[in-house]
Amino acid sequence: MGIASSLFSGVSGLTTNGNAMSVIGNNIANSNTIGFKSSRSIFADLLSSTISGSGGQSQIGRGSGMSVVDNIFSQGTFENTELNSDLAIEGPGFFMVTDPSTGELRFTRAGAFRFDADGYLINPEGYNVQGYILDDQGNTVGDLTNIKANTRSFSPANQTAMVTLNTNLNANSPYVGPFDINNPATTSNYAASIRVFDSLGQTHLLTTYFTKLDPATNPLQWGWYATMDAGELGGTPGTLQQVGTGTLQFDTSGNLVTPTVGTTTAGALTWGNSAAQNQQINIDFQTTQYSSASVVVAQEQDGFGTGTLVKLNIDNDGYIIGNFSNGQPRKLAQIALSKFSNPGGLSKAGNNLFEASDSSGPPIIGTVGSGVGKIFTNSLEQSNVDLAQEFVKMITTQRGFQANSKIITTTDEMLNDLINLKR
User: What are the residue boundaries of the Flagellar basal-body/hook protein C-terminal domain, all occurrences included (predicted)?
Assistant: First the structure.
């Protein structure tokens, strides 16, 4: 092989350690890059040459080379953020994004996402986050696609089916006589009003009057009378129309005995608009009769009007949730995740992105709960670079480089001595 071959062994060592230093430098440069996965250099010796000696044949190495640069996919720590669209993955999964110009699928652990003006969920480079669109019932519609929240969407109205009245009726109220729909103020002891919704989301004022019945013939009984402006029901505006009636029976402790739920009269709620007709509303009377002033403690109803989208949120299951002006949230889409049989085989594509290769295998696609990882909102995964370890590697790599440079200078001196044998 000769003395000169050691020069090339030294050169191979310089090249290998120089490349290793580039890997270390890249790791350190990305120590603050979200979702970054560090790399490591694996060296291998080169083919050896065979020499013959008195003891037989032997092998002499011919230097080192770079075997592979591995990607290290260890879990990074999480950084809390103020943005709900900042997402981090715990586990083996990757977010999927597509290049808006080519449609090529890429994979990333960097979840610094945001919604653009058209409602698309994108990363800082404008790549579209992938997931599934959901219908009004929360069911998946179609295949994997760009996640888009329709910022001009509406939440449909829901007609009122139940009204809850939590009231106290004064046990000391006087008997004022039979209820008269044409003179409710003087033939009732108390009234409670609440707005209810029809199927189109239009509101109507439902007023329930309470009249203490004759204690001589109906002890501890009250009558209730649900009324509404007749103009709401296609009649004469400004006049009341009775839409439901019943009695409430109390015990001597002031507790309601029966019934606890009343219902509007069938066919009474026939609206004057094009909403669904013959609506019926149940009234849950959570009512007491104590010796204190009549008062509404609380009242509520389960209907709501049409709402427009006012805000978008993402939950820990990856659902894109639209909050509407009528107070009703609705799931609009769900973020998809993927994992690989061999993530170390992924190829880096820049911009915190990876692409699949023959070595990594095809992506296994799923959502949270299917083994592809968990999503954390208001969080970003930090780089998994260990600076202390990188600096130690830097020292050893530098020493390796220096040692290999010594091989070259020492071999040069030996060659110089050889040349000087004959002067």
Answer: 379-421
Q: What is the pLDDT of residue 270?
A: 93
HEC assignment per residue over 227-247:
EEEHHHHCCCCCCEEEEEEEE
* Residues of the chain falling short of pLDDT 50: 1
Identify the architecture of domain 162-301 in CATH: Sandwich (2.60)
Give the residue extent of every domain in the chain.
Answer: 5-74+388-419, 78-155+309-381, 162-301
Q: Quick one: pLDDT at residue 190?
A: 97
pLDDT of residue 37: 94
> Residue 273 gets which letter from DSSP?
S
Q: Residue 284's closest CA among 369, 162, 187, 418?
A: 162
Residue reference for tokens 């044409």:
182
Going by C-alpha positions, the residue among 26, 122, 127, 22 that lies closest to residue 66 is 22
Task: Quote the pLDDT of residue 420.
Answer: 85
Q: What is the pLDDT of residue 408?
A: 86
**What's the Cα-to-Cα distance from 198 to each of 175, 202, 214, rounded to whole Å?**
35, 6, 36
